[in-house]
Write a structure and sequence with these properties.
The protein is mainly β. It contains three helices and 19 strands. Strand 18 and strand 19 form a beta hairpin.
């Protein structure tokens, strides 16, 4: 009898051990992409008398969906796709092209296991802007004024994040803390960076503005798609000086689209270049240059890079 009891106890213990060795099984459940995705837009100041808004260019955007875990949005399909993460699916975006313009918003909503659903919506917005006359006079000298990169000043060229990095302080958002050039740092590798000049002209008769770029030693830029559309830049190659014949284009003053907080140093005014044949200082950037500070003798610019996530900084002085 004792032998049978021991045998039974052995079998019971073996069953317990075997059961404990079985791996737990997990399940994600059905991998269903988000459904009923909707982009809601509210053009600020829109009413019967102002069908395209109050001229601020501001649009409140919210994205809703069933089974949604995360949201990203591209505010304007006319530019390169640049999906911005929205933690709660809401944002206010400022559209800065002057006049009445239509923009295509693209939302990507993510669900379980990386599933996603995409939706687009067009929104028509009016943007009005009048720059400070003192700022215009400082930039153009009242008629025409030529600027060059301030090569002898530390930080005359630099890069930082375009949007705030949560791992750093909020102030880092608008400083070149990733890299800042030492005085005259690019003289040996990239003479063109310092020999190029940029002439801003006010045309009183038409109320328009032009930029003329003279670059006898070429344009300082990256290549290929990162060259910002500058004509004649090769499809590949390292950052450096490349043959560029100069050019003239119109520009306008617009409210900046950077989204910098009101407390950050900025004139809340940007230079928007028309077309792709001109640039200011560095070619591998987009065409909207926010004026952080300006005086009769100095100009400090912040501009979004053609590489995702970069904000470039440029300091210039009168020639």
């Amino acid at each position: 009898m004792l032998l049978k009891f021991k045998y039974f106890s052995f079998i019971l213990a073996l069953i317990v051990v075997l059961n404990s060795c079985q791996k737990d099984k997990y399940s994600l459940g059905p991998l269903t992409a988000p459904t009923e995705v909707v982009i809601n837009t509210e053009v600020v100041g829109q009413d019967a008398s102002h069908p395209n808004g109050d001229g601020s260019g501001d649009v409140k955007i919210s994205i809703s969906a069933k089974n949604a875990l995360a949201y990203k949005v591209d505010f304007d399909a006319n530019n390169a796709v640049d999906l911005v993460f929205l933690p709660d699916g809401t944002a206010t975006n400022k559209y800065t092209n002057l006049g009445v313009n239509t923009y295509r918003i693209t939302a990507v909503v993510y669900g379980r296991g990386g599933t996603s659903s995409t939706i687009t919506k067009d929104v028509t917005v009016r943007s009005d802007f009048t720059p400070d006359p003192a700022l215009v006079d400082d930039l153009t000298g009242g008629s025409s004024k030529t600027w060059v990169v301030d090569k002898n000043t530390a930080g005359h060229f630099g890069v930082g994040p375009w949007v705030h990095d949560p791992n750093n302080s909020a102030s880092d958002w608008y400083t070149p803390f990733w890299y800042a050039a030492a005085p005259n740092e690019k003289a040996d590798c990239c003479k063109c960076f310092y020999s190029a000049s940029f002439t801003f002209t006010k045309v009183p008769a038409s109320g328009t503005y032009t930029l003329t770029v003279a670059s006898p030693d070429g344009a300082f830029t990256k290549t290929g798609s990162l060259a910002g559309g500058l004509p004649g830049i090769p499809a590949s190659g390292a950052e450096g000086c490349y043959s560029y014949g100069g050019g003239t284009s119109a520009f306008t003053f617009v409210p900046p689209s950077s989204g910098l907080a009101a407390s950050t140093p900025s004139t809340k005014t940007a230079i928007l270049l028309a077309g792709n044949n001109t640039y200011i200082g560095y070619g591998a950037v987009q065409k909207e240059y926010e004026i952080l500070t300006i005086s009769e003798n100095s100009l400090y610019l912040r501009v979004r890079g053609t590489e995702t996530g970069n904000a470039w900084y440029l300091k210039l002085i009168p020639q």
